[in-house]
Amino acid sequence: MAEEKTLNGIDPGQLRGAVRAMKEDAQQGKLVLRASNKWIKGAHGQTTIKGFCHAGKEDTSRSKAFVLEADEPRALLGEDHGPNATEAALHALASCLNTTFIYHAVAQGVKVDELELELEGDLDLRGFLGISDEVKRGYKNIRVTFKVKADAPKEKIEQLCELAKRHSPVYDVVTPPTPVDVRLEIK
User: Fold this and answer.
1) What CATH architecture applies to the domain 13-82?
2) DSSP of the chain
C-alpha cells in the first residue's frame, strides 16, 4: 500500500476534492453544529458536543462525545474545574485561526514547521455584573499574535495570516457580532 502524502498533516488531494464538491453543490459546505450545556454547581458547567449535521444529513462518524468543563478561577468565586467561558472563546478563536491558516497553507503548497498563536483579551467585569451599562460585557479588545516558521517568504506568510483572519468562522463570529437567537423553555 502506497504511503499517503500529506502536507502539514492534511491530504491536499482530499482538501481539493472537498473544495470541488462544495463548488459543485453548495449543500456540501453546510453544517449544523450542536452543543448542550448543563449547570453543575456555582460557576461550574459542562458542555457536551457530539453529533452534527453535514450536507443535510446527520453525521455519525464520532464515536464519543467531547465533554468540556467550564468554571471560574477561585479568584472569581469558582472552583477552577476548567477555563471560564471568555477563556474558552479565546481558545475557540485561536483554534479556528490556526486551522484556517493551516488549510490555506496546504491549499497553496506551503509547508509549515511551527505555528503558535498567543491571544490576550481585555475584560471589565463591571459589565458582566451589571454595575455599569457603559462598560462592554464582552472583550473590549483581543490581541492575536501569530508565530510562524514556514518554508515561504514573509509576504506569503503575511498573506496566509490575512486569509486566516478573513476566512475563520470564529473570527467572523466575534467581528462583527453574530446575531444570537435566545429561547426559553421552562421545565
Assistant:
1) 2-Layer Sandwich (3.30)
2) -PPPP-BTTB-HHHHHHHHHHHHH-GGGG-EEE--EEEEEETTEEEEEE--EEETTEEE---SS-EEEEE---GGGTS--SS--HHHHHHHHHHHHHHHHHHHHHHHTTPPEEEEEEEEEEE--HHHHTTS-TTS-SS-SEEEEEEEEEESS-HHHHHHHHHHHHHH-HHHHHHTTBPP--------
